[in-house]
Amino acid sequence: MAVALSRRFLLLPALFALTGCVPIHDMAGRATDEWTHTYPLSAGGEVRIANTNGRIDIEGTGGSTVEVRAERIARGATDGAARDLLPRITIKEDVSPERVSLETERMSGIMIGVSFEVRYHVKAPKNATITATNTNGQVVLTGLTGKVSARTTNGGVKGDGLTGDVEARSTNGQVAIDLASVGASNHVTLHTTNGGVVLTLPESAKADLTASVTNGGISVGEFQGIDVTEKSRRRLEARLNGGGAPIELSTTNGGVRIRPRNSVEDTDKTDEGGKERKDRLSPIDRERR
Fold first, then answer.
1. 70 CB contacts (<8 Å, ≥6 apart)?
2. What is the torsional sign of CA 266, 269, 271, 275?
3. Three-state DSSP class for 107?
4. What is the pTM assigned to this prediction?
5. Helices (DSSP H) in 132-243: which residue ranges?
6. CA quadruple 5, 6, 11, 12: dihedral positive or negative?
7. Rg (CA), the chain
8. 162: nearest Cα among 207, 201, 211
9. Are 99 and 39 in contact (CB under 8 A)?
10. N or C: which end of the chain has fewer CB within 10 A?
11. For residue range 188-234, what is the model confidence (pLDDT) as tens digits?
């Protein structure tokens, strides 16, 4: 019994030495490569990107092909450790004429003193249906006209020049979406838990707006055709230009900002002393003050 106990205690320092010899935060070694593929996609097809660590960029283009450039990045205590990890970063493909699906596979086993990420750079037909999911990293969407669904846990969602249905959600990060146009049949849902929600849309857009916050405020820019039907510190309901597409915005810990395209940024609403300039506030915000 004594021999067994002594062996057990002798093993503990060895285990601590193994796990502690390479601090997780000290990974100077780095290795990278690029994974590139091109896929044909039928009109209205779906592009799905699922990632665990790293950014996802999807840009809408003309044509009928999906071009993917994925940067695979491995880090370790040494360059050699990073190079050993690099081949284990696997991207799973599920491809058909109607659907291109790429997923960063999770690694099995215990990873000590190493880490990895994949950065996706995707060019897709602008009318494709886009589904992007991430765990640790931002999702950026540009120039897309089809339906868009983007979700991330630790990171933000950013969209520029979108014109289709949009569902964007984050747990820890900002959701900022710019709509180039809003159709009568569009549905827009933007939500985050810890972060702000920013929506930019044309002043001429016809929409039914609903915004809600738990810990934060709601700010509305200078829209000429706005009809507010309900407002409080935590909730706003309004019709833009007679109403139309349903738009729902919500956050738990953060604020909601709604502003017209090409408007003055909210940072310009303060004077040199940091106080809000009333001439830069919307009629709704002025009334609240």
1. 34, 35, 36, 91, 102, 118, 119, 120, 121
2. negative
3. coil
4. 0.82
5. none
6. positive
7. 24
8. 201
9. no
10. N
11. 999 999 999 999 999 999 999 999 999 999 999 999 899 999 999 99
